[in-house]
């Protein structure tokens, strides 16, 4: 079978791999759609903190069950989306139901080879039926689940003033689920095209261009109070550090993005505001199911978010384009 491998930073190749065979409790999925995530682009750029090269990319995945191992109940031919976080089931996090931060987690396309390939083999519990959704939509469940999880971590409530910093795909998911929970959303980003999408498609209340005047603008929007909840989805250390200034007294700061650098903040300001600082990693089954229900109910602007497409063979040459801001990529899908 063919697969898209990042050989080293800046170099992608289509490679031939043996087609996997499902063991007991495993399913072989014929991949039809693979979404390109910021994580994939960071891997291509060489800036992801949890990765060893070479690596087959891909964790936003949808397809059909091609074969099952013994003990499986799912039918061959069933359309599915994948839950790409393989957890151990026995560590302290798994025992508490937090499989998203399992001590021995293996994320497809990051810790182990992923699904930008013709086939991938996973445990049956890592697939879910995608009846009622298109293949395009099913491939978007994972990144939207990260936004759902971030808002569940923040416990976003109706009327909360929520600032999402970084309006890439993960940030858009945070905005969507902040709004569905009744939050009043503001988006902050350096790119006007992304902010325009937030206004015109997602209907956020306010948008602010990042830069020297951002804090003043954010303060003005909130009459000097700043934000009950701030969610950072930038993947930039400087942005994360600046975000502490955007949190209201008694507010919550949620870090979705992952960076290599050490993050620092001013402790007196942190304590004076009694900020709740939370990490938000991946998503759980609860989040995946929440996203799929909302998607099936027509609450996800998935068609508007799908801006670019390519075949598996075209993907190595298209990645460098999608990274460029002038391309205007929101979500690229690879058709396999």
Task: Kindly describe this structure.
With 336 residues, this protein is of the alpha/beta class. It is 29% helix and 29% strand. It has 2 domains: 2-140 and 300-335, Quinone Oxidoreductase, Chain A, domain 1 (Alpha-Beta Complex), CATH 3.90.180; 147-279, 3-Layer(aba) Sandwich (Rossmann fold). It is built from 12 helices and 18 strands. Helix 5 (169-180) links the parallel strand 11 and strand 12. Helix 4 (141-154) crosses helix 10 (285-296).
CATH class value of the largest domain: Alpha Beta
What's the structural domain tally?
Answer: 2
Note the run of SSEs as H and E.
EEEHEEEEHEEEHHEHEHEHEHEHEHHEHE
Task: Compute the number of helices.
Answer: 12
For the biggest sheet, the summary is: 7 strands, mixed
Mean pLDDT: 95
**What distance lies between the first and last C-alpha atoms, to the nearest angstrom?**
11 Å
Rg over CA atoms = 20 Å
CATH-wise, what's the superfamily of the largest domain? Answer: Medium-chain alcohol dehydrogenases, catalytic domain
Structural class: alpha/beta
- At the fold tier of CATH, the topology name of the largest domain is Quinone Oxidoreductase, Chain A, domain 1
Counted beta strands: 18
Q: What's the CATH architecture of the largest domain? A: Alpha-Beta Complex
Strand content: 25-35%
Q: Low-confidence segments, ≥5 residues, pLDDT <50?
A: none
Morphology call: globular
The helix fraction, in percent, is 25-40%
Short description:
The chain is an alpha/beta fold and 336 residues long. Helices cover 29% and strands 29% of the residues.
């Amino acid at each position: 079978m063919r697969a898209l491998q990042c050989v080293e930073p800046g170099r992608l190749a289509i490679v031939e791999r043996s087609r996997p065979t499902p063991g007991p409790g495993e399913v072989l999925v014929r991949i039809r759609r693979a979404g390109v995530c910021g994580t994939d682009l960071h891997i291509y750029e060489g800036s992801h903190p949890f990765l060893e090269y070479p690596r087959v990319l891909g964790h936003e995945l949808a397809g059909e069950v091609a074969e099952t191992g013994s003990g499986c109940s799912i039918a061959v031919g069933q359309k599915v989306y994948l839950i790409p976080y393989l957890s151990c089931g026995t560590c302290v996090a798994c025992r508490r139901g937090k499989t998203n931060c399992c001590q021995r987690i293996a994320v497809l396309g990051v810790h182990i080879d992923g699904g930008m390939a013709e086939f991938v083999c996973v445990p049956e519990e890592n697939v879910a039926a995608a009846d009622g959704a298109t293949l395009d939509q099913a491939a978007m469940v994972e990144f939207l689940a990260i936004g759902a999880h971030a808002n569940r971590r923040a416990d976003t409530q109706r009327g909360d003033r929520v600032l999402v910093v970084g309006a890439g795909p993960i940030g858009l998911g945070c905005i969507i689920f902040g709004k569905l929970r009744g939050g009043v959303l503001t988006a902050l980003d350096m790119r006007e095209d992304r902010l325009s999408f937030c206004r015109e498609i997602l209907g956020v209340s306010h948008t602010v261009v990042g830069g020297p005047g951002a804090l003043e603008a954010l303060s003005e929007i909130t009459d000097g109070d700043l934000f009950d909840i701030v969610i950072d989805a930038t993947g930039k250390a400087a942005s994360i550090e600046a975000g502490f200034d955007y949190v209201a007294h008694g507010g919550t700061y949620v870090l979705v993005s992952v960076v290599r650098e050490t993050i620092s903040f001013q402790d007196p300001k942190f304590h004076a505001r009694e900020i709740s600082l939370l990490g938000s990693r991946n998503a759980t089954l609860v989040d995946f199911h929440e996203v799929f229900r909302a998607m099936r109910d027509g609450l996800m602007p998935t068609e508007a978010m799908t801006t670019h497409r390519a075949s598996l063979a075209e993907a190595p040459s298209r990645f460098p384009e999608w990274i460029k801001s002038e391309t205007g990529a929101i979500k690229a899908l690879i058709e396999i």
